[in-house]
Amino acid sequence: MHKMLMDCALSKEGDGVPVKLVVNHKCEDIDTNSGTVVFTDGSSVKHDVIIGSDGIGSAIRKLIGIQVEKRPAESSCLHANVTSEEAVALGLPSYGEMNSAIEYWGGHGSLNKIVLSPCRNSSLLSYYCFFPREKGDYSGQTWTSEDRPVGELLSPYPDLDPEIYGHLKIGQEIRPWRLWVHEPYSHWQKGLACIMGDAAHPMMPDQSQGACTALEDAAALGLLFSKDFYAGSVEETLKLYEKVRMPRATKVQAASARARENIHERIGFSDNTDNKLYAVNDESSKLTIAEMNSYDMRADILSKWPVSAQTSVTTNGR
């Protein structure tokens, strides 16, 4: 997908000027009034708009004055890969062939939860293993840290089903996934600069909506700066972007944090109201599949569009 998006941006096909991709430049400072970006090597560039899509450790976020309030989650997570070939050779179930969908174990009234995501046509099984932080605190480590020993992966689950336990025993590339709960940020934009994706709304992984929400951010920017909507002011457009995106992303962010502690808060599970274990914090704030999949971004933009501009946009059939 990354390659497809890059090729699309660099292509000469379509309207506009193709993107010029420049790598290995670390941002040191920005001027939100002029659109100037200064890099650590001393070079600088000036553009119409600065979009910080630079992840959870965003430099742009800090440079537009956002104060981050975060705390370690009550859970820790270790990720491990298992090859289906090795599992089958040991007489273990071939979970990927049995069901190519995401599988869950646990999560009912417990911080213990294991998530299996089959990859590469189910030849590789990707395990995300969650457990209470007191059983292993990895908040000071990074994804690029050295692999952890398999014993650390197994120790939180002494009573785990023997077959799943057998899979984890042959886990490879065991690495910590740091879990931090971020409070919603005060703003996403300043002058000619804004943030998007994990830079704007880092969230727990339990709704699987981090990347989806980032794609929505990009789509919103694309619409707002299109001929259909752009009225000539970058600053006003970025303010509208924040007005459109922040409420929805913040709701997903909050629902993801709740789903970390209660699997019934996860989309899909939140619709299973006849499940005898079903329980959510608040019916009015839970996240649903319909809410995520039926979202009409264009209508959302128009509902928040300045009244003075709505007539011309509607008249033009856009």
TrEMBL record:
Domain FAD-binding stretches: 43-254
Keyword Repeat attributed: no
Gene Ontology MF term list: FAD binding; monooxygenase activity
UniProt xrefs under Gene3D superfamilies: FAD/NAD(P)-binding domain (3.50.50.60)
Entry superkingdom: Eukaryota
Keyword entries, A-Z: FAD, Flavoprotein, Monooxygenase, Oxidoreductase
InterPro entries: FAD-bd, FAD-dep_Monooxygenase_BioMet, FAD/NAD-bd_sf
Keyword presence, Flavoprotein: yes
UniProt-listed Pfam families: FAD_binding_3
Family (UniProt): Belongs to the paxM FAD-dependent monooxygenase family.
Protein name per its UniProtKB record: FAD-binding domain-containing protein
Native species: Zymoseptoria tritici ST99CH_1A5
